[in-house]
Design a protein that fits this description.
Number of domains: 1
Radius of gyration: 16 Å
CATH topology: Peptide Deformylase
Number of helices: 3
Bound molecules: zinc ion
Shape: globular
Largest sheet: 5 strands, antiparallel
Strand order of the largest sheet: 1-2-3-6-7
Length: 196
């Protein structure tokens, strides 16, 4: 999800070739864009925490902060694994990077909340989405330990949005069919133009 949904954002771009990265191990990854079919793929659970997995998570944070975004799912960088990175800290707050491996919603509130959502894979498109206002999410941390978090507000929305990605679901699936068809058409046309 992009940072500060509702405001205009530049199209996420990669660092120019040869530009220095923050750390030699970290790398920006390309964010795939609608209508890329991989966005509809259901991601596989992570079996165990490996060096590759840690490198993926580092790259995802780097990519998410650069975009900038508050949440990213691995499939958005083309990796079909159930991995999500989130940072909902406000601009004047210190960074709060959180990684969720195999996240699943184990409880959602009856109470609903509405946020204007956006998605780094659907740049510059924002729409209000209603979701449960509170959720409990079970996940594995980077030490391989099972954890549970109770989330509300923006974090609850971001977690639901990103967990949807691990199941091949996009936030536009939660809006009216008319609006969804319109945005898919727009991005499909843009992809065709770029391919020409
Ligand atoms: Zn998204």
């Amino acid at each position: 999800m992009p940072q500060g949904a509702g405001r205009l954002h530049l199209h996420p771009r990669l660092t120019a070739p040869g530009a220095p990265l923050k750390s030699p191990r970290m790398a920006l990854r390309e964010i795939i864009i609608l209508p890329d079919k991989r966005l509809r793929q259901v991601s596989e659970p992570v079996q165990r925490i490996t060096a590759d997995l840690r490198a993926l998570v580092e790259d995802m944070f780097e990519t998410m902060y650069k975009a900038p975004g508050v949440g990213l799912a691995a499939i958005q960088v083309g990796v079909p694994q159930r991995v999500v990175t989130v940072d909902t800290a406000k601009k004047d707050e210190p960074q709060n990077p959180q990684a969720f491996i195999n996240p699943e919603i184990v409880w959602s509130s009856e109470e609903k909340g509405t946020y204007e959502e956006g998605c780094l894979s659907i740049p510059e498109y924002y729409e209000e989405v209603e979701r449960p206002a509170q959720v409990k999410v079970r996940y594995m941390d980077l030490d391989g330990k099972t954890q549970e978090v109770a989330a509300n507000g923006l974090l609850a929305t971001v977690l639901q949005h990103e967990i949807d990605h691990t199941n091949g679901i996009l936030f536009i699936d939660h809006i009216s069919r008319l609006k969804r068809d319109r945005v898919i058409k727009k991005f499909t046309k843009a992809a065709k133009r770029e391919a020409e």
